UniProtKB/TrEMBL annotation:
Compartments (UniProt record): Cell junction, Adherens junction
Biased composition (Polar residues): 388-398
Name of the molecule in the record: FERM domain-containing protein 5
Pfam families registered for this protein in UniProt: FA, FERM_C, FERM_M, FERM_N
Length: 570
C-alpha cells in the first residue's frame, strides 16, 4: 500500500513542471503547471498575479530549441509547444498594441503598456526625432523619480539613466531641462499617460519587426501595427497598407505573400523571403492574428485560415481571442476600485537600464551581447521633423524616414542622433520576433561586407547562453561560407519550381496507384456490393475485362512462372 502511494506521488510530481515568466518590469513570476495545462491556464495565472483585467492586449512569448521565438497559443498544451527541457522560461509582453493607449480603462493596463513602449524606445524599435526623444525621456524621468529636487538631483543627473541605444550630452541636457521646467507637479500616472499619447503619434508605434528580403534580395523589415501592414527598407517606409486593404496572407516555405486590394480594383501581391521556413510561418501567424484583432467587428467572424495549395503542404491556423472592438466594449463595463500599482521605481533592470544609476553607456547592464564584433556607429541618425508630423494611420504609402546626413564628427555632435540608424535596423538592438541565430548572423556579416556598420544588443527574453570564443570562430567560418554560396531569389524560385514538379509527380503516382487498387478489387474480388456490381454489369467493363485484363493477367502469370522455374533450375 505504501509503495503504491509513493509511486503515485512520484508520477504526479513528474507531471508537474516549473515555469518562470519574466514580466515587463523585469521581475519574475514562478509557478508550477501540470503536463496537460493549456496556455490559457498559465496566462490567467499571470493576469491574476498582476491584477489585470484588460488582458487581451498581452501575450506570452518563448523561444524554441531552434532559437525561433513564438507567441504561446492559449488553446494548446504549454509543454508540447515549448519542446524544451524544464524549467521553462517565458516572457510576458504586449502582443497587440492598443490603437489609442490613452483610452485604456484602467491605470494598471496603461502602466504595463508604458513599460513595453519604454523597452521599445530603449531597444531601438521606436524611432523618433531628437525633440520627441527628449520629451519622451523626460516623461520617463518624471514618472520614475518625480519632481526635480536640487538637493537630490545634482548637475548631470539625467546622464545616469539610459533611455536610448545611444545619446549625447546635449540630449541629456535637453532631457534635464524639460524635466525641470515643464513637468513639475505631474504624478507618475499623468507622466505615463502623456508618454503614451506622444508615443502613439510616432510612425513606428507598435512595430514588431520581422527581418526579410524582397524579390531583389534587399533587406527589409515587415511589421504589423494597429493601423495596418508596414514594410521598412533603409530609412524609407516603402509600403503602408491599411487592414481593410489586406485581403489574404499566405506563406510557402520561406516565401511570404501579402494580397492587397486597393481602390479602383487595383490588386497587388507583395512577396518577401524570410530567413527560415519557421520564421516565415511565425510571420504568417502574427499577420493572421493582427488582422483578425484589428480588422474584424466580432470574434464570431474569425475563420480558420489555410496556407496550402495544390502542390504545397500548408498550415491551418485560427485566431482564438477576442477582437479589439470587443475588448474596448468589455473594458467600458469594468467597475471596480483601481488596483494598487507597484511601480518599478529605482529597482535595477536587466534589459531596460533607464531606471538604473551608473555611468552613461559604459556600465549599462547588458543581458546578452552578440559574439560577432561589429563596430559601433559614431552617431545614430536623427530624423527630420517632417518625417513624423502625422501619425501612421493618416500616412500615405510613400512616406519615408528621412536620414540626417552627417558632414563631420563635430557636426554629428551638434545635430544629436537619437535612435535611427543609417538603415532602420532594430536587429542592432533586439529582434522581438527573431529568426534563427545563423540567419541573423548571416545578415549582419553581409552588412559588414557592404560597408555598413551597426551595433548589437539583444534583449534577454530567453535562457540561451552566450557562445564561447571557439564557437564564435567556428560559426563565423560557417557564415562566411554561407555568404559566399548564398543564392538569390532566382535560385529560390528554381528550387520551388523543382519541388512543385516533384510534388505533382508524387500526387499523380498516388492517384494511379489508387486506381490500380480499385481495378484489382473490381476484377479479382468477390465483394457483392451494389456499387461494384453495377460497374461489373456495364458492357464497357465486361469488354475491358475479357479483351484486355484477362490476357494481361495470363501474360503476367506466364512470366512469373518462367522466372520462378528459372530460379529453381539455377
Amino acid at each position: 500500500m505504501l509503495s503504491r502511494l509513493m509511486s503515485g506521488s512520484s508520477r504526479s510530481l513528474e507531471r508537474e513542471y516549473s515555469c518562470t515568466v519574466r514580466l515587463l518590469d523585469d521581475t519574475e513570476y514562478t509557478c508550477t503547471i501540470q503536463r496537460d495545462a493549456k496556455g490559457q491556464y498559465l496566462f490567467d495565472l499571470l493576469c491574476h498575479h498582476l491584477n489585470l483585467l484588460e488582458k487581451d492586449y498581452f501575450g506570452i512569448r518563448f523561444v524554441d530549441p531552434d532559437k525561433q521565438r513564438h507567441w504561446l497559443e492559449f488553446t494548446k498544451s504549454v509543454v508540447k509547444q515549448l519542446r524544451s527541457q524544464p524549467p521553462f522560461t517565458m516572457c510576458f509582453r504586449v502582443k497587440f498594441y492598443p490603437a489609442d493607449p490613452a483610452a485604456l480603462k484602467e491605470e494598471i493596463t496603461r502602466y504595463l503598456v508604458f513599460l513595453q513602449i519604454k523597452r521599445d524606445l530603449y531597444h531601438g524599435r521606436l524611432l523618433c526625432k531628437t525633440s520627441d526623444a527628449a520629451l519622451l525621456a523626460a516623461y520617463i524621468l518624471q514618472a520614475e523619480i518625480g519632481d526635480y529636487d536640487p538637493g537630490k538631483h545634482p548637475e548631470g543627473y539625467s546622464s545616469k539613466f539610459q533611455f536610448f541605444p545611444k545619446h549625447s550630452e546635449k540630449l541629456e541636457k535637453k532631457i534635464a531641462e524639460i524635466h525641470k521646467t515643464e513637468l513639475s507637479g505631474q504624478t507618475p500616472a499623468t507622466s505615463e499617460l502623456n508618454f503614451l499619447r506622444k508615443a502613439q503619434t510616432l510612425e513606428t508605434y507598435g512595430v514588431d519587426p520581422h527581418p526579410c528580403k524582397d524579390v531583389s534580395g534587399n533587406a527589409a523589415f515587415l511589421a504589423f501595427t494597429p493601423f495596418g501592414f508596414v514594410v521598412l527598407q533603409g530609412n524609407k517606409r516603402v509600403h503602408f497598407i491599411k487592414w481593410n486593404e489586406v485581403t489574404k496572407l499566405k506563406f510557402e516555405g520561406k516565401t511570404f505573400y501579402l494580397y492587397v486590394s486597393q481602390k479602383e480594383e487595383k490588386k497587388i501581391i507583395l512577396t518577401y523571403f524570410a530567413p527560415t521556413p519557421e520564421a516565415c510561418k511565425h510571420l504568417w501567424k502574427c499577420g493572421i492574428e493582427n488582422q483578425a484583432f484589428y480588422k474584424l467587428e466580432k470574434s464570431s467572424q474569425v475563420r480558420t485560415v489555410s496556407s496550402s495549395n495544390l502542390f504545397f503542404k500548408g498550415s491551418r491556423f485560427r485566431y482564438s481571442g477576442r477582437v479589439a472592438k470587443e475588448v474596448m466594449e468589455s473594458s467600458a463595463k469594468i467597475k471596480r476600485e483601481p488596483p494598487e500599482i507597484h511601480r518599478a521605481g529605482m529597482v535595477p533592470s536587466r534589459s531596460c537600464p533607464s531606471i538604473t544609476h551608473g555611468p552613461r553607456l559604459s556600465s549599462v547592464p547588458r543581458t546578452r551581447r552578440r559574439a560577432v564584433h561589429i563596430s559601433i556607429m559614431e552617431g545614430l541618425e536623427s530624423l527630420r521633423d517632417s518625417a513624423h508630423s502625422t501619425p501612421v494611420r493618416s500616412s500615405s504609402h510613400g512616406d519615408t524616414f528621412l536620414p540626417h546626413v552627417r558632414s563631420s564628427r563635430a557636426d554629428s555632435n551638434e545635430r544629436v542622433a537619437v535612435i535611427a540608424d543609417e538603415a532602420y535596423s532594430p536587429a542592432d538592438s533586439v529582434l522581438p520576433t527573431p529568426v534563427a541565430e545563423h540567419s541573423l548572423e548571416l545578415m549582419l556579416l553581409s552588412r559588414q561586407i557592404n560597408g555598413a556598420t551597426c551595433s548589437i544588443e539583444e534583449e534577454k527574453e530567453s535562457e540561451a547562453s552566450t557562445p564561447t570564443a571557439a564557437e564564435v570562430e567556428a560559426l563565423g567560418g560557417e557564415l562566411r561560407a554561407l555568404c559566399q554560396g548564398h543564392g538569390g531569389p532566382e535560385e529560390e524560385q528554381v528550387n520551388k519550381f523543382v519541388l512543385s514538379v516533384l510534388r505533382l509527380l508524387l500526387v499523380t503516382m498516388g492517384l494511379l496507384f489508387v486506381l490500380l487498387l480499385l481495378l484489382i478489387i473490381l476484377t479479382e474480388s468477390d465483394l457483392d456490393i451494389a456499387f461494384f456490381r453495377d460497374i461489373r454489369q456495364t458492357p464497357e467493363f465486361e469488354q475491358f475485362h475479357y479483351q484486355y485484363f484477362c490476357p494481361l493477367r495470363r501474360w503476367f502469370a506466364c512470366k512469373i512462372r518462367s522466372v520462378v522455374s528459372l530460379l529453381i533450375d539455377t
